[in-house]
């Protein structure tokens, strides 16, 4: 396992390196440097460049850039909030996005598992049709429509939950964003679990367990749930991606002060430094989560632990 | 027990092979399984339904915009925001052009057609805020989305499949290098790829397709590789190899036909994500430029007015959802048929 | 607010403000005239890189402002002074008829030097590094926040009768905002675009007439064809402003066929400067037949049969730009427009510099209540869209040094010159509409800016 772990970490770090290289190159070609100000004299620009290390060779700049990024110094914003360090912009937003994303993932996964298992276990036609309907809807309808639907029903008509995020009651006011985000997660996990659980139920060991007269609840928990969970972890990474993109839309709808909203603002006002910094943050987050999932997979599935081949 | 009865060879069993028999190649088994798959696919009602939906949508995308007398980009400002009104149905009081609006100070029902004195005009899906016919626009939008779907398919086939098959077939160092490339590309979230692209390119169909080219084929290549791994150790491939068949022959004649099922399933699954990508990008203002017509821009437009004119959202939303459901049903059917 | 009285002396070159003596900052420190001096100096200081510097160099020409902004003179030489704690004096290089309106802009608000220094560079970047001298004090703010919270300021010089704080919420989706208003979560919302139809007869609707205008700025240098008067005239006459205002822009916008909108500036004789809205109908009125004949005349003079122009607009305003482009192309045979939607920043930059466009959909908000605020873009030194006319420049200078009815006449000359020469094409002017819940009073919107003033906003106790 140690060897596998080392390999994974080396891969992750090299990926991060490549991403930083791409971002650095993009940064070099982007217009809108803060030194393009026509009011500054040539000497002033030169002095500024020297103070920022821009007079050094590109390769030195690149390593300086990596060092800065890894130390958490993401540069300053050029246009959406001029001269504010991007770290300042992120420090309060990141936890908000992370919390909502994490809770949607947990809620969606739990609901999906339950739905999938129920459908796999009961062979009732009604349940099957209902399940297919719900999961198809979850996959085929964009999350902003769910957001609108929830706002209209839970917020506007029945007045149960607030329609906007409010820092004075962060938990209560994030209920609707979480609901809207978790539906697609639920649908994907549900479909996946159903298929996996079906396979597991047909397997010899479950058949054997049934033959020995084990209680069906024990079978579900001990064999089916556990064995269906393993492949579910593999699709978590792709779910995370859909959550990241979903958060852009949801944060706009519910006025959540998170990084998704920051990214859309930055893109629409061409604030390259913020876009590039956020790209780094998103990629780093994704790589870290993938690494964690890999380790988790490694712990749960003994085949990986012993054999060392992730494929 | 009858099946196990000992078979006694007869003289007729030992005639030389006819010319017909000689024509058969090793891919004979494959065509057989293909026919089986087709049968199993068409035996599923939901898969057939999905297929019908997709064919119908394609057909409508082609001819839809010409089914009405109104052009899709003809602006008539005084006819802005007309609700749907259909011939025949309107005489029964459904879709007669009247609209109930929930104003902040109470409900009102108006019929803009009457107000404008155009009772002989019919806009089946109504008009948008510039007085353009929504019917023609909806199908124009569908056409654009289907073009994106087509692009996704082509990209998946040409880049994803080839990458995966080559990587899986040759294995060894080739595989390791190609997999590291996949690891790197796959580790950059699509969102980041798209946003970075937007910095370099103008938003539009081109950048959506380039984004798909950069990262839309990863899943496909993974699946193709895994399938090739499964198939390439089978005896008939080994046999072909010992008989000196070229790599090209083995890949295209022996392996490919056996993994088509899985690959087509993956294509059907990649279409919704491509169409979704477009819709999502349009919603956050990064997709097709405003004024152009795609399902994404139409949805966004309709969505921003849903409290006022819900009819603007419904037809496009229905088309989008039907497209999604169609693809998923077909994919599901293919998956079951190939198992 | 702070001033009890003001006087303009020395032929309009010296403006003196007398402040109240009981003013305090929200941290309890006294507010003195020195803080106004510092505020002006901060704007003038090139190190601040203030975006408002043009206000004191071009719009009202404070003494030495120009030299300070280029670094030739130290900041302390700026023509502002505080002879004592309650007196603030501005010395101008030229009389400025609208100075009192100009100094109410928020960038001229007082600013405490001691406090700014104590924040070591992070002044006004969070709630902790900001001081208030109004009835409210900000107690929650982050850069680009979607939520800002204000509480009553206990050091305000009088009891303002405030019962509750103010929560300012940025809502990305207009419908979400409307639903929140209807459920009572939000008390005041701004309502725009088509959603305005939902509230058009609502008794809670408050309309504020603002001088926000849309116009097409014509770049007079980018394309030779645009130097042709007939081409410009044809373009001005081929846009059906009324139909677009009514069906597309909506929310209180109406056709504008002159530079200065209605109810913006009152003449010395007490009448509205833009009383006669149809005065320039000959130049600006929608008339496809005349437009077409002017157009073909213009093309003939240029010796071409078709024209391609770049039409730039903010991507957020594409709903307005599209029908304009369509009408121009439909009514002017042979015109092909290259549409370029841009992010807001880039669009503003092009409006300001006059770079990279042939025509641009601009939305303007004058900085002060005076017609010249809308004319500056046409003087050669303003240089926004590269219009150049010596006679216009002279007349503009004259408007700065005259007053009363004489000045009003000069203003009319300026307006006529712009419209007869089609230096730019005015399109729409409008008002801002808000839905205000019961029990809320004191909502103010400045007539010049798009700024909402919350200082008088009060909520009745329930």
Describe this structure in words.
The complex is a heterotrimer of chains A (311), B (339) and C (462). Chain A is flat. Chain A has helices at residues 2-29, 42-51, 58-71, 86-91, 93-121, 125-140, 143-157, 170-173, 175-202, 204-211, 216-253, 259-268, 272-300, 302-307. Chain A is mostly helical and 311 residues long. The longest helix of chain A has 38 residues, at 216-253. Chain A starts with a helix and ends with a helix. Chain A has a domain at 94-258: Orthogonal Bundle (MetI-like fold), CATH 1.10.3720. Chain B has 339 residues and is mainly α. Chain B has 13 helices and two strands. Chain B has helices at 19-23, 28-42, 45-63, 112-116, 134-170, 172-186, 190-200, 205-215, 218-232, 235-242, 247-283, 295-303, 314-338; strands spanning 98-103, 106-111. Chain B has a two-stranded antiparallel ribbon. In chain B, helix 10 (235-242) crosses helix 11. The longest helix of chain B is centred in the middle third of the chain and has 37 residues, at 134-170. Chain B starts with 18 loop residues before the first helix and ends with a helix. Chain C folds into two domains: 3-110, Dipeptide-binding Protein, Domain 1 (Dipeptide-binding Protein, domain 1), CATH 3.90.76.10; 209-431, Dipeptide-binding Protein, domain 3, CATH 3.10.105. In chain C, 30% of the residues lie in helices and 22% in strands. In chain C, helix 7 packs antiparallel against helix 10 (288-302). Chain C is α+β, with helices and mostly antiparallel strands and 462 residues long. The mean pLDDT of chain C is 84. The chains are: A mainly alpha (311), B mainly alpha (339), C alpha+beta (462). Chains in contact: A-B, A-C, B-C. Chains A and B meet through helix 1, helix 6, helix 7, helix 11 and helix 12 of A and helix 6, helix 7, helix 9, helix 11 and helix 13 of B.
Q: Give the averaged pLDDT of chain C, no decimals.
A: 84
Q: Helical percent range of chain A?
A: over 70%
Q: How many beta-strand segments of chain A? A: 0
Oligomer: heterotrimer
CATH class of the largest domain in chain C: Alpha Beta
CATH architecture of the domain at 94-258 in chain A: Orthogonal Bundle
So what's the overall shape of chain A? Answer: flat
Strand content of chain A: under 5%
Helix/strand-derived category of chain C reads alpha+beta
Roughly how many Å apart are the termini of chain C?
29 Å
Instruction: Describe the main β-sheet of chain A briefly.
Output: none
Number of helices of chain A: 14
Largest interface: A-B, 44 and 35 residues
Number of structural domains of chain C: 2
How many helical stretches of chain C? 15
Q: What value does the Rg of chain C take, in angstroms?
A: 24 Å
